[in-house]
Amino acid sequence: MALLGTLGTPGDIASDVAEILLAADRRGIASHGTARLPNYVALVEAGVMEPAARPTLERERAALARFDARNGWGHHACRVAVDWAVDRAASAGSAVAVVRNSNHYGIAGWYALRAAAAGMIGLSFTNSSPLVAPTRALRPLIGTNPIALAAPAGRWGAFCLDMATSTIPRGRIEVAARRGETLPVGWAIGPDGRPATTPDDALAGALLPLGGLEETAGYKGYGLGLGVDILTGVLAGATFGPNIIGLFSTEAPSDLGQAFMVIDPAALDEAGAFESRLEGYLDQLTSAQTVPDAPGRVLVPGEPEAAAEARSDERGIAIDARHHGSLVELGERRGVPFPDVEQTA
Amino acid sequence: MALLGTLGTPGDIASDVAEILLAADRRGIASHGTARLPNYVALVEAGVMEPAARPTLERERAALARFDARNGWGHHACRVAVDWAVDRAASAGSAVAVVRNSNHYGIAGWYALRAAAAGMIGLSFTNSSPLVAPTRALRPLIGTNPIALAAPAGRWGAFCLDMATSTIPRGRIEVAARRGETLPVGWAIGPDGRPATTPDDALAGALLPLGGLEETAGYKGYGLGLGVDILTGVLAGATFGPNIIGLFSTEAPSDLGQAFMVIDPAALDEAGAFESRLEGYLDQLTSAQTVPDAPGRVLVPGEPEAAAEARSDERGIAIDARHHGSLVELGERRGVPFPDVEQTA
Questions:
Q1: Which H or E run contains B183?
Q2: pLDDT of residue A46
Q3: Cα–Cα distance between A122 and A113 in angstroms, integer?
Q4: Nearest CB to A289; choose among B59, B138, B161
Q5: Per residue in B289-339, pLDDT tens?
Q6: 3 state DSSP class of A316
Q7: What are B61-84's pLDDT values in tens digits?
Q8: Which chain B residues contact residue A93 at CB under 8 A?
Q9: Could you say which of A64, A161, A186 has the minimum Cβ distance to residue B93?
Q10: Residue in B186, B226, B230, B223 with CA at minimum distance from that of residue B207
């Protein structure tokens, strides 16, 4: 937060950014957390992101609003937008908020969980830089455009699906490259358009949409990713698809779009009835008989991330040496020393 | 419609049912069209579906409603529900309607397209009988729970994603059985929990969620299918997951749940601006360079179905001999002769 202060970001905005980046780290999604701080800072230093901008509410109906993030921190603009939707859903029963002229907002799930913490169903969407080849296309034309859906689930805490609409995120290919792995068919295509078998081939080509190739219904993942772009970039009037610049490119503002949908189950039922039904459903699924080679019981979406969060809150957040080094270097450069941490590896 | 009259279904309800079943046939989705009429009639004849029931609006806020379909035709109750959501979205900007105590509603896309025809973005969801094994589970515990998203797209007519959250529908396995095909990994598991290689093995086992096995991110399709059930069965207070009885089983009422979300882009923009942006986006995607072995250009979701619809409207709907025979037999049994049709096969 002190570091964001050196950029001119007011404290309340910095607080949102810090909370959401740390949520990614706590939930074990390091690729979307503080490891990205150097990228965000580079955008501000290059003058293509406004560190102090506050979102404005441009259009408003009882259950629909459009915010202009004014090229500021996506995390803050989207926290404001989802809170608007939660507030409106409490009276109207449901509400939708979209954001344009925005930047990366971190993990999609945080905003959906914000609604779940208010006892509501939350959906969160963003578009992103083109990394995925639509079915039959040679080049990446759409983003990994995630979908998050969270809901309060009693003893299970919250159900939280938070998924890219590609088979795997680009970061998973980078991990495979470091490990020298070959890739399963369905993850990516190479620059020649054939299924990529090596990480290098995939990194030079494009990710495949969820479902993989056409014969395994990759067109569904393509449709989902495009659907997310319709709800975000196209609806909000932001940039979309192949027109979005590269991830954390400093050549121009990103002009991303986000969307949030919130539904209040308490408008339909006595308090707690929805959570209780969902809790019972998750009990049924997690106690089901498994396939012979299953590595464990059936999981609830979001369960691995919630477990990582509980571990982090108990033992602290584990970050790798490269991530640590980049934050120390960033702190030194901005004159805000990175706090001492326990070395575990 | 005369046939539905013999069941005691009033004319306006029968008209909705006929329109939605014929829309499936016209769009080339025979599995969800008039071929199912004998199944629906069997439910009425067995006394487990109410052919004359009218839905009631049970709870209502400005942008959220719950309807009780009173165990009547799902098509009619859901047409009423989506029309309520379109009407409310026109004033509130967005609205959600859920339906409980319902029956099968045909193709999910029809309801989304109903909103698109009103110039709005429509989302349509239903839960269904358990056919899909969640990741790691041995048995089918959730339905193929479809997601449909439609939006007006200028010269492209409408964007219409209409997809089961399983890799493929069960009907595709039945087609493979008739053709004597083997199955790709990712479609289904056999009763032993291993990937099914033959249609018989798959039909005795379970479909896999979109994404297939765990290594190709099948847990995302599982999360999507479960998310649909949360928005429909769990939110509406209908049955869900493993508690839903078999497809067209006459043992008891189905008590399915459906949900519709509608957003009015005209609340955010001048009229036509949204459609124009989406049209331009689809122009970009469909003119993109393709992979070397592509069977054609990049498609817009819903394009094959829209093409089938145009062909049907020009040349009539083609149904196969078994489908034709079942309707003739049904007509004879109910005393309403099936109209003469041109034999083409």
A1: none
A2: 97
A3: 7
A4: B138
A5: 999 989 999 999 999 999 999 999 999 998 889 899 999 999 999 999 887
A6: coil
A7: 999 999 999 999 999 999 999 999
A8: 61-65, 96
A9: A64
A10: B186
A contact test, residue of B100, B160, B181, B234 with most A CBs within 10 A: B234
- B236/A contact by beta carbon, under 8 A: yes
Q: B-chain residues within 8 Å CB-CB of A272?
A: none
Q: pLDDT tens-digit profile of B224-239?
A: 999 999 999 999 999 9
> Looking at the domain assignment, is residue A325 inside a domain?
no
Q: Is A269 on the interface with B (CB under 8 A)?
A: yes
Q: What's the sign of the alpha-carbon dihedral A86, A75, A156, B207?
A: positive
Indicate which of B64, B125, B279, B293 best probes the interface with A, i.e. most A CBs within 10 Å of its own CB.
B64
Q: Domain limits at B70? A: 53-165+213-320
What does the alpha-carbon distance between residue B258 and residue B275 come to, in Å, rounded to a whole number? 27
Residues B199 and B121 in one domain: no
**Average pLDDT of the residues in A193-200:** 96
Q: Are residues B59 and B202 in the same domain?
A: no
| pLDDT tens-digit map of A217-233 | 999 999 999 999 999 99
Please state the domain count of chain B. Answer: 2
Q: Do the Cβ atoms of B299 and A240 come within 8 Å?
A: no
ipTM for this model? 0.96
**Is pLDDT of A345 > 50?**
no
Closest to B94 in 3D by CA, of A183, A299, A262, A275: A262
Task: Find the closest chain A residue to B150 by CA distance.
Answer: A227
Q: Does B128 touch chain A (CB under 8 A)?
A: no
Considering the domain architecture, whether residues B183 and B287 belong to the same structural domain is answered as: no
Whole-number pLDDT of residue A344 = 52
Alpha helices in B170-302 (DSSP H): 170-179, 199-204, 218-229, 235-236, 273-286
Provide the pLDDT for residue B345.
43
pTM: 0.97
pLDDT at A1 over 80: no
Give me the CATH number covering residue B184. 3.30.60.50
- Chain A CB contacts of B206 under 8 Å are none
Q: Which residue has the higher pLDDT, B77 or A343?
A: B77
Interface of A with B in 282-321 (CB under 8 A): 284-285, 288-299, 301
Residues near B153 by Cβ (< 8 Å), separated by ≥ 6? B159, B275, B278, B279, B282, B300
CA distance B51 to chain A (A): 26
Q: In 10 A of CB B200, how many CB atoms?
A: 13
Interface A:B, Cβ pairs < 8 A: 290
Task: Identify all chain A residues contacting B138, using CB atoms and an 8 Å cutoff.
Answer: 288-291
Between the two ends of chain B, the Cα-to-Cα distance in Å is 26
Which residue of chain B has the CA closest to A186? B216
Chain A: give the shortest CA distance to residue B315, in Å.
Answer: 28
pLDDT in tens, A102-111: 999 999 999 9
| Residue A96's CATH number | 3.30.1370.60
Q: End-to-end alpha-carbon separation of chain A, Å? A: 26
In angstroms, the separation between the Cα of residue B147 and the nearest Cα of chain A is 9
Q: Is residue A251 one of the residues assigned to a domain?
A: yes
- Whether residue A169 lies inside any domain: the answer is yes
